[in-house]
Structure formats: structure tokens, C-alpha cells
Recover the amino acids of this structure.
């Protein structure tokens, strides 16, 4: 973001904090793709991601006065979105249906960048168990550190490392199976 | 597959993941739903009722209320209620109550309560010292609860749970006073016969 757009965003934030809904709509328009993208990656489900993104913005509105500008607004929104996803998943048992065993195979790995590779990767990420998926998405896709990831997810840094390792292993198995 | 293959695959995996789009536009506009949700008046936050004395007030209310009701139910069933003549005058002052920053007890309720309290003061003199002491003890428990809840409301004026509790405590008090009035009235009639 340029300094100009940061200043503009700050203005909308101040107005929204004072209860100005149109100003909050501007913030929504500026950030909806980031929030929805994160929700989609974390849930792996379009309908659930839409609900999560909506809930995240509603939560953000109610907690807007807590935003002090210590981090970028987008980062703050990301944290709200992560909490929303986790909160919804805790309430839902649907997640349990997602977990499935990935068979252990030993095939020669193909290049991920080959035809349809990214699409396969997205699909494979969607199939990960939630704990591994959340850590992988935040670290490998969004570039958060172990410490940031563990703080956002409310887990120990060691757990975050273990989940990332697990995600890589499961993804490798999944992608190799699809390539075989 | 050797370690080098694994390392290469891992590197490719992470590189490919970093290429995935992080910003995705939803297929439908989510704003109307958000706008509808945020335009509704905020519900009062459910605050955690963590003050020890406020919890103690609830316990006192429960114990006091139940023992009062039990006592009165048992007394009410007695064949005869001895009348204590020339009993001491009892003070039965109404407790000032408020319902946080938004509500106050109405003047009609205050008047009715004051009038009933004055009547109960008179009627209490007709009970035996033991009965009178028991009723007074129960009333004191409820009054203490009312005061404690009011103190808690002074700190959390918009706590809906406290407001509800205060209202039900006033109801308990009113109920107790009406029962005392009923008991002494019945005793009088029996005594007159």
C-alpha cells in the first residue's frame, strides 16, 4: 500500500470507529478479497468461506475500537478472520467429516508446477486435516512465521512446527498419489 | 525415493504454495448481509458475573427465599397461630432500588411497596417472637441481596443478568410481605372466632 492509500484507509477506520457504516463498507471493499481468500484457504469450502468472511467483518465492526494501529489493518483483519474460522469450526462437527486417512505410497514425485499442479495443490490442501491445513495455509501460503502462526491459532510454536511437517508429508503423499 | 528427492519436493511444494492466490473475490457480494447485521442495535454484552459478593448475594437470595417460602408454607398450614400482643414496633423501611442506568422502579410500585411494608410492620407485631424473628431473618436476607445486587449494578449498570436478578428479588420480597400479611390476617380471623 502506498502512503496515500494508508492515510486514506486510516481515515475510513477512524470514521468507522465512530459508527459510520458507509466508511466500514469502504474498508470491506478494500479488504474483502484478503479476508475471503484466507477463509477459503482455511475452510476449503466456498459456502463456509463466505459465511466466515461475513462473520469476520461483523466481528471486526464490533471490535473496531480495539484496533489501535499497532499492526496494519489488513493484518488485524486476518487475525479476526482466523479467530472467526476457528470459532466456527469449534461449533461445527462438519470438520470431522473432512478428516480422512491418506494412504502411504512410495512413487516418484512429479514436478508440482506441471500441468494442473497448482490446482492439484489447492485440492490437496483442502483435503488436509484442519490443524495441519491451518498451519500450512498461514505459513506456506501467507508467509507468517511459526511464532505468528502459533499466536494466531493459539497453539505452541512446537505444535505449529509439527503440524507443518505433518501437512508437508500428507501433501506429498496426496500429490504423489494423484500423479501416479 | 532418497532424501534429496524429498528435499526437492519439499522446496517445490513450499514454492508452489507461495504462488497460490492469497486474495480471492467471493462470487457474491457479502456486504448486504454484513450491513444488515451491523445495523441492528447491539445486544448488551454478556458480562461474566465474577464478583464474589454478587455471587454470594445470589446464594443468599436462594437460601433466604427458599427457607422463607418453606417456613411460611409450614406456618400457613398450622391450625392455630398464637397472637403476640404488644410486640415491639418493627422497622420495615423500603430499600431504594434502581435498574442500572436505564431503568428505575416506578413511583406506583414504590408507593405500593411502602404501603405494604407499613402494613407488614403492624402485622408482624401479631406473630410470636420466634415467628417474627424467622420472618425478619428472611426479610433481612432478601434485603441484603437487594443491596448487594444494587452495588453490583452500580459497577455494571447495564448488566441484564443483574437487572433480572434484582427484579426477581423485589418480587420475592413483595411475595414474602404479602404472605406475612396473609398469615397474620388469617390468625386474626381465627383468633376472633
Amino acid at each position: 500500500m502506498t502512503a496515500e492509500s494508508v492515510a486514506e484507509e486510516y481515515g475510513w477506520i477512524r470514521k468507522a470507529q465512530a459508527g459510520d457504516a458507509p466508511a466500514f463498507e469502504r474498508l470491506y471493499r478494500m479488504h474483502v478479497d484478503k479476508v475471503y481468500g484466507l477463509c477459503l484457504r482455511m475452510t476449503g469450502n466456498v459456502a463456509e468461506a463466505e459465511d466466515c468472511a461475513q462473520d469476520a467483518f461483523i466481528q471486526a465492526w464490533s471490535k473496531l475500537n480495539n484496533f489501535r494501529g499497532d499492526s496494519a489493518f489488513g493484518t488485524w483483519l486476518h487475525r479476526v478472520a482466523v479467530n472467526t474460522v476457528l470459532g466456527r469450526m469449534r461449533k461445527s462437527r462438519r470438520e470431522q467429516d473432512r478428516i480422512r486417512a491418506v494412504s502411504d505410497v512410495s512413487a516418484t514425485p512429479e514436478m508440482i508446477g506441471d500441468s494442473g499442479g497448482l490446482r492439484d495443490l489447492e485440492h490437496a490442501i483442502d483435503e488436509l486435516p484442519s490443524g495441519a491445513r491451518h498451519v500450512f495455509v498461514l505459513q506456506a501460503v501467507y508467509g507468517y512465521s511459526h511464532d505468528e502462526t502459533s499466536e494466531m491459532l493459539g497453539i505452541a510454536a512446537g505444535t505449529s512446527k509439527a503440524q507443518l511437517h505433518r501437512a508437508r508429508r500428507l501433501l506429498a503423499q496426496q500429490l504423489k498419489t494423484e500423479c501416479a | 525415493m532418497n532424501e534429496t528427492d524429498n528435499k526437492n519436493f519439499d522446496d517445490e511444494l513450499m514454492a508452489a504454495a507461495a504462488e497460490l492466490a492469497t486474495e480471492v473475490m467471493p462470487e457474491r457480494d457479502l456486504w448486504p448481509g454484513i450491513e444488515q447485521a451491523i445495523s441492528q442495535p447491539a445486544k448488551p454484552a454478556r458480562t461474566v458475573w465474577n464478583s464474589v459478593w454478587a455471587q454470594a448475594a445470589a446464594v443468599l437470595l436462594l437460601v433466604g427465599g427458599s427457607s422463607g417460602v418453606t417456613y411460611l408454607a409450614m406456618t400457613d398450614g398450622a391450625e392455630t397461630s398464637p397472637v403476640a400482643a404488644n410486640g415491639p414496633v418493627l422497622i420495615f423501611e423500603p430499600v431504594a432500588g434502581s435498574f442500572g442506568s436505564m431503568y428505575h422502579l416506578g413511583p406506583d410500585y414504590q408507593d405500593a411497596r411502602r404501603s405494604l411494608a407499613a402494613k407488614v410492620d403492624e402485622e408482624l407485631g401479631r406473630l410470636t417472637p420466634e415467628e417474627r424473628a424467622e420472618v425478619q431473618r428472611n426479610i433481612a436476607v432478601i434485603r441484603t441481596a437487594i443491596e448487594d445486587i444494587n452495588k453490583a449494578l452500580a459497577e455494571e449498570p447495564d448488566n441484564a443478568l443483574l437487572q433480572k436478578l434484582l427484579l426477581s428479588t423485589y418480587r420475592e420480597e413483595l411475595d414474602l410481605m404479602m404472605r406475612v400479611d396473609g398469615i397474620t390476617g388469617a390468625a386474626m380471623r381465627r383468633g376472633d372466632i
Summary: Chain B touches chain A through 32 residues (CB under 8 Å). Strands of chain B lie at 98-99, 103-104. Residues 44-50, 77-103, 186-193 of chain B have pLDDT under 50 and may be disordered. Chain B has six helices and two strands.
